[in-house]
């Protein structure tokens, strides 16, 4: 059973058809939003949340965050999906210490997340322009 079906989420075909603006979200390497499983998209969002909160995004922290939504996440699911995101140039892995790796998002993954956020906001009629407090253009 795929991640999309298991979580009762719409599949790639229905997702693309449901968007008002059918623009495909593509990372620099040619990976589209719908090329990723729901679990992989959640991995990107989780790493972004950890980075935004200044927490270290190492495997067990990512696992703990995901378990708030998925229940138990085993290593056999987590690390192969992280490895695939690394292969797609959406995540970078670096060594924190001899036993712990840190995972960070690449610019391509930020582009995917930001574009998808704008699409969902537009679909819901939400303005995505944020006020700029320094007087400059954002």
Q: Report how far the terminal alpha carbons are from each other.
A: 42 Å
Q: Count every beta strand, where a strand is a DSSP E run of 2 or more residues.
A: 2
Order of helices and strands: HHHHHEEH
Radius of gyration: 16 Å
Which strand order do you get reading across the main beta sheet? Answer: 1-2
Beta strand %: 5-15%
Query: Poorly predicted ranges (pLDDT <50, ≥5 residues)?
Result: 1-22
| Total number of helices | 6
Shape: globular
Query: What value does the average pLDDT take?
Result: 82
Q: Can you give a write-up of this model?
A:
With 138 residues, the chain is mainly alpha-helical. The protein is built from 6 helices and 2 strands; from the N terminus they run αααααββα. It has helices at residues 3-6, 12-18, 38-52, 59-70, 75-87, 107-123, and strands at residues 91-95, 101-105. The radius of gyration is 16 Å and the shape is globular. Residues 1-22 have low confidence and may be disordered.
Give the topology.
Blueprint: H1 3-6, H2 12-18, H3 38-52, H4 59-70, H5 75-87, E1 91-95, E2 101-105, H6 107-123
Helix pairs in contact: 3-4
Summarize it.
By secondary structure, the chain is mainly alpha-helical.
Question: What descriptors fit this protein?
Answer:
138 residues; mainly alpha; 6 helices; globular; disordered N terminus
């Amino acid at each position: 059973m795929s991640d999309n079906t298991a979580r009762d989420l719409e599949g790639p075909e229905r997702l693309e058809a449901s968007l008002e603006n059918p623009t495909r979200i593509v990372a620099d390497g040619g990976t589209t939003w719908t090329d990723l499983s729901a679990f992989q998209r959640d991995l990107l969002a989780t790493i972004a949340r950890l980075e935004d909160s200044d927490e270290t995004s190492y495997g067990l922290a990512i696992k703990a965050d995901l378990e708030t939504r998925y229940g138990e996440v085993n290593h056999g699911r987590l690390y192969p999906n992280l490895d695939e995101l690394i292969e797609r140039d959406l995540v970078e892995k670096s060594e924190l210490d001899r036993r712990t790796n840190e995972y960070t998002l690449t610019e391509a993954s930020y582009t995917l997340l930001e574009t998808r956020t704008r699409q969902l906001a537009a679909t819901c009629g939400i303005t995505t322009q944020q006020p700029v407090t320094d007087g400059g253009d954002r």
